[in-house]
Structures are given as C-alpha cells and as structure tokens.
Amino acid sequence: MFDQLNSGRTRRLAEEQAVLRRLPGQRLDACKKQLVKVGPGSTISVGHNIYSVASRLIGQQVEARLYMDHLEIRHGGTCVEKLPRLRGEGKHAINYRHVIDSLVRKPGAFENYRYRDDLFPTTRFRVTYDNLEKSHAASVAAKQYLNILYLAARENEAGVDDVLRLMIEQGAEISDQEVERRFRTNQLPPAVTEVHVEELDLKRYDELLEEVASC
Fold it and tell me: Which residue, of 35, 54, 57, 61, has the fewest CB within 10 Å?
C-alpha cells in the first residue's frame, strides 16, 4: 500500500531533494541577540524600535534578546526586563515608571518630551493634566502632574487612578498635594456605576418581521 501511494511522488521527491541544503551544524537560536547601550533617556533601540528600561541602567551595556512575541533585557547575566515585542519599525514603548525619576528632577523637560503621550497610563491621568494646564502655568502644571505620576509609580497606580476619578466626578480642584492626601487617608471612591442591560427577547424580531410581511 505504501509503495502504491508513494510511486507517484518519487519524481517530485527527487526534485525536492536536489535543492535541499544541508542542515545547520548546530541548533538555531530562538531569538536574535544584540548588545546595546542604554541612552541618557533610559531607552534602547532594538529592531528599529524604541523601548524604555529602568533608569538605573542608563549608560550601561545590556543584552537584548528579541523573540517572536517579546523582548528580554539581560544585564550581568540576569534578566531584568521582559517586554512585549513591537511589530514593524519606527514605534516606541515607554513605561512611565522607567523615566519618572529623571522627569521629576527636571519637570521642565516634560512639555517637550518626545514620548509624552506614553506618560498618561489612563484617560483620567490625561484629564488631570489638562485640568492642571487650565488653572496653572505650564511649568507648575507639569511639576504637579509629575508628582502625581510619581505617586502612582511608587505606590499604587490603580489607587491613584481611583482618587482622580472621584475628584474629577466631584469637580474638585486637583493638586498633587490633595491627591496624595486623599490617597494616604484611604478615602476610597464609590465603585464605578454598573450598567444593567436587560436580556433581549429575540422573538420580538420575529414579530416585527411578521408585521412587515403583512403590510
């Protein structure tokens, strides 16, 4: 049976074998390895994309291992970061926790920061900054917002986000000191309003079609 099934494939198999190359002498790596230096902005360039890493690595040489779905950063033989891989080229992935320390020390750089849009982890952080800009000078708004972002990075992003939600809903005047005060005193905001949608009776569509058909 096998001979009969393979008899018609012998010629095509010979054609394939004629163009096959030798197998590699050793196992292929599952990733591409690249030595890169962390720039002053706490970023590295891998695969024509920009990634941020911990600020303590600024000026250090790290090994970037680019896998199919993620990027692994190793320093001193230890994995220090594991990031989702960016697809394509010319993109960036900036984690505000990596750069917040340097920005807090130099708040004036925030306004012209190249990757500023990545420094708003939720829409409420964006609304907070917009509100601060309306009521303060640009330098003051940037400093206060960065202090709020620093609190989120060092303590609890979800907790700070909840405080901002409550203050925005109340129309309260937002400041870095007031946000921290509410966060420290555990003034928990009410839960997000739940929307209940009644289950739809599909028979109503049949009744509608019957009414249209009878017209």
Answer: 35
